[in-house]
Amino acid sequence: MDEFFFFIVAKYNYWASLILLFIGLYGMIAKNNLMKKIIGMVIFQTAILIFFVSIGVKWGASVPIIRFFPDKQPLLDATAYANPLPHVLILTAIVVGVAVLGVALAILQNIQRIHGTIEEDEILEDMRK
Amino acid sequence: MMDQTPVFIIAIPLFASLLLTLIGPLGPRVAYGLLIGALSLSLGASLATMVRVVQTGQAIHYYMGDWLPPMGIELVIDHLSAAVLVMIGVCALLSGIYSMHTAGQDNHDRLNNYYALFSLLVTGLLGMASAGDVFNLYVLLEISALASYGLLARGGGKAYFATFKYLVMGTIGACFYLLGVGYIYIMTGSLNMADLADILSRESLQESVSIRIGFTLIILGIWTKMALFPLHAWLPNAYSRAGTATACLIAPLMTKVSVYIMLRMMFTVFSADYIFNQIAWSSLVIYMASAAVVLGMITAFAQRDMRKMLTYIIVAEIGYMTGGAWLANTAGYTGAVYHILADGLMTLSLFMAVGAIIYRTGDTSANAMQGIFRRMPITAAVFLIGAASIVGIPPTCGFFSKWYLLQGAVQAGAWIFVAALLIAGLMAAIIFFRLLEAAFFGNLDDEGLSVGHSAPHSGTGAVQMREAPLTMLVPLAVAGAALLGLGIYTNEVVTYLIRWSVPAGF
Amino acid sequence: MTWDANLLWQFDMLILLMMVICAVAALSLKGLVSSAVVTGAYSFFTCLMWTHMMAVDVAFTEAAVGAAVSTVIIVATAQYINPWSKD
Amino acid sequence: MFPVSFYQIAPVIALCASLLAVPLIAVSGRHPNLREFWTFAAAALKFAMVLSLTGWILAGNVITVDLINVLPDISIQLRVDSFGMVFALVSSFLWIAAALYTVGYMRGLAEHAQTRFFVCFALSLCATIGVAFSGNLLTMYLFYEMLSLSTYPLVAHHQDREGRGGARKYLTFLLGGSVGMVLPAMIILFSLSGNLDFADNIYGGIIPQGTGNLLVTILFVAFLFGFAKNGIMPMHAWLPGAMVAPTPVSALLHAVAVVKVGVFCTARVMLYIFGIDVMDELNLGVAAAYIVSFTIVTASIIALTKDNLKARLAYSTISQLSYIILGVALLTPSAVQGGLIHIVNHAFAKITLFFCAGAIYVASRKKNISEMSGLGRVMPFTFGAFALASLSMIGAPPVGGFITKWYLLVGALDAGQTAIILVLLASTMLNVAYFGPVTYKAFFGKPNDSISENPKIKEAPLIMLVPIVAAAIISVLLGIFPHIMMQFVRMVTT
């Protein structure tokens, strides 16, 4: 039981990102309001990003900025820093996410303009007419 | 200069799209010229690269800014990507030329922005085909996806909602892919494809659950993007409601490039051995592909709207390629890759032919086909060639891809896939026969319009011919000729390009 | 400052809990504007989480792009459309 | 006679002659005389090329020409051997006759869309020669499909509901057979044997040793029924439906190009892909012989019930085609020779019959046999030719059909198949029963009012009459001098 508890707790950020992932997925698929779908999408993307950043975390590591100490060599030991590569990737992914959000909202405004609503069932009804 | 061709392929359309957003006041003519120029140059660079790859027999590795992998961005152009790059280049250039009249019709204002998105989409596709890095692939996937959302939404009206659905599904797919990449990265610490392939081939990782989850997520993400059968629901509405010029660009290319990514992931990053012996989903995927082929064709049969019919045929064609790739033998793989090239051209010529018919008649239903052979003989001829190719009649290229796929299915003993391919061929024959009969004889139901037996008639003179404008007709004719040309030169394509990329272990 | 789970894991848990709560709230609130604001809060907690994970550069970006720009454009759109959702 | 290099080019020229004529015909659509000139020029060139090859082939040579390498292991390959020569000679010669007749028919009835008609006519002849000269199964399949598609507009020529329905049925059966059966069978065969080239002789075949019997049988059945142009029941249904086409097309379809291509492909596959040895070992020959025997008898009985002359001829065709396959299926040399020579004999006789039917229609607008009573007195040449050709169908000496029957009977005796002999005799009786009355009534029946009171009814135009009489005479000559064609056929079996 302890081992299982440790298994759950030690990787809690992975579990949290998984929960957020499913919340987001639920929002994208089950919600009727298109704006809610978009918010679900944001949550979904962020969950994956949290997962990615968690990869770079290490025990006893610090912010990946090389530290200089007075009268000492700079600390160049890689184990002292969190892995920065996922961070770099995530920066790109965040920007991509915002771009998608922007396009989605633009389309949403046009849907409102054309159909007069952003509720999915009402749109489908409107299209059937 | 020749060493730099790989980067020109992508950089030229990228900078063109930036430039295009800035030159709005100069008018649509300038924008059109710039777009065509950029696409031609990019195609030229692709061709030059392909020639180099074929001559040297080796993949070209290009390091962006001389940063070496696994840190730097690497472009890898091997035989497979060279073939796909040229296919993308040709399709993009043809649909670019074709867009002159229709783009203006669909987008009344700011044509330069439309062309900027057009160029950006092509950049993303070309980048995906040449990326040597799984994360770059994600970024380029999203670039092309974003551009395609923008383009598809410009169809107006009902296109917005269809695009929104596509956007949601596309984002889910891309995020799954990214999550899968994350899993792979945890286990390997690398994102470079060649590097990953090297690490993943180690014994210790073969059994790893994380790798397996990563692979599953990546493949699911790609399947969503390429609209494989149960995940295809977004595609028909999104594509059929787009503007004509947009549909001609996106329909042939987006899904085909996604199939290319699937092949890349399956055989370059992971290995054939891992996919077929460790994962061992083959039979399930073959069933899915068979279902895609048959149900896609059946649904296509039920459509009255011509473009919607074509989009369901795309769904079926995706089944062809997926099935071929998962047959786990050389013939199946060859068929899948050849079908990427063939289907790109087939779909392009059919969409362009239908677009030209819609342009002249203003009708998107099958009724528009009536009497097309008399009124628009060249368009009708290209439509006929494209239809023959989908049905699989020699010497069009569709026959040869079907040949390889069937051969692979027979060798693999996948009889369900054989049956699905044959049924799909016959269904396609019926679908197109209906349209072509109307195109040939005029009215579908009423005999009044058809030319009676006794009426003396000299043929072409009586009905006024009214072909689409030249900018539509020329790419249309080129695409039709390319279908035949690709079919006749199957041997060369297979020998010089596809055979080189057959993964080890087949 | 280093990653030390013994010292700060309760804080970590708290942030994650807040994120989940914000996510659920953002999806279930009827008013779209409040939904948008809660999404901004969600972004802000993400930002904190990342700071805590030693990813300050990502946290900066998220603060600027996620918490600020995204919230602003969502709120702006919510103004343009019907601000009350059915679910 | 000619330099050797000539023999490499001649088959290609023969193939392309009609293909090259297509754009010329299409362009000169507004000048009927020029348009017809191109047809004749192409037909003459084609026939000359085929004729020039005869000496070389008779000397025992086989010409192979690789055109394009379409797949790494298979190329589009032409091969001229004595078997293909028989068919190529017949079809290229009959194109000239048919073209002559067609011009008369089309102008006589002032048909619409004549340019399209001649274009498709030329295309289908190109495909026919392609099938005759194909060197492997893929090439044959390619031209087979080309023929199906290029004859579609011909069948649907009238563009009315009936014509469209017939053409739809036509394409459904042909494409269904070829895409649904021949294509997969071909690919399975390719997976088994690694190539699709026809074997050098008719005994060995190319199916590798040790292939499962069941698989071979399945392949055999797929090929037998898949080449639906051969009209074996139940894949025959397109043939009566395609009767709605103008008569020159029916003549072409039923006598020369289409059905003969079906039969030729079936025979080619049976002899050069499976080989006599394999068919003998698995009893496939006997099975096929009984299947086609059923077709022979049933089709003849159905023919008896038809009053429409063209429909009767159509069922007669179904029955006669099965003779050819029957001969091949009996697997003895005489029977194979008898079957193959029937390609020639039936072609000339049946084209005469169809030409006659068309001439009667042009002259008197009559389609039904019951209305033709007494017509022979007004149209003696037409009905004379008709009588000769029916004799050939029946198998009476001295007309060509006799040779067929003779060899088939000898072959059946060799094979020891008494039942087949009975089938042949029964079908001969039935042939007499359905062809005899037509000629008898025409010459000796009492003319009904519409004929005796209408002085306009006279012989068809000369341009139609010449091919009719010529084909009938050749039909007779084939019976008197059978060795001209038999020497090709004998080379097949040795």
Q: What would you say this structure looks like, in words?
A:
The complex is a heterotetramer of chains A (129), B (506), C (87) and D (494). The N and C termini of chain A lie far apart (59 Å). Chain A is built from five helices and no strands. With 129 residues, chain A is mainly alpha-helical. Chain B is built from 21 helices and two strands. The model of chain B is unreliable at 444-462 (pLDDT under 50). Chain C is mainly α. Chain C has a domain at 30-82. In chain C, helix 1 runs antiparallel to helix 2 and helix 2 packs antiparallel against helix 3 (56-80). The longest helix of chain C is centred in the last third of the chain and has 25 residues, at 56-80. Chain D is mainly alpha-helical and 494 residues long. Chain D has a domain at 283-494. Helix content of chain D is 76%, strand content 2%. Chain D has a two-stranded antiparallel ribbon with strand order 1-2. In chain D, strand 1 (63-68) and strand 2 form a beta hairpin.
Tell me the quaternary state. heterotetramer
Helix and strand sequence of chain A:
HHHHH
Largest interface: A-C, 54 and 46 residues
Number of strands of chain C: 0
- How far apart are the first and last residues' alpha carbons of chain C, in Å? 43 Å
Q: Give the overall shape of chain C, derived from the CA principal axes.
A: flat
Amino- and carboxy-terminal Cα gap of chain A: 59 Å
Which shape of chain A, going by the Cα principal axes?
A: elongated
Instruction: Using the coordinates shown, work out and report the CATH topology of chain A.
Output: Helix Hairpins
Helical content of chain C stands at over 70%
Task: Provide the helix percentage of chain A.
Answer: over 70%
Supply Rg of chain C.
Answer: 15 Å
Contiguous runs where pLDDT drops below 50 for at least 5 residues of chain C = none
How many separate structural domains of chain A? 1
Strand percent estimate of chain A: under 5%
Largest sheet of chain C: none
**Which range does the strand content of chain C fall in?**
under 5%
Let me know the largest β-sheet of chain A. none
**What is the CATH C level class of chain A, in words?**
Mainly Alpha
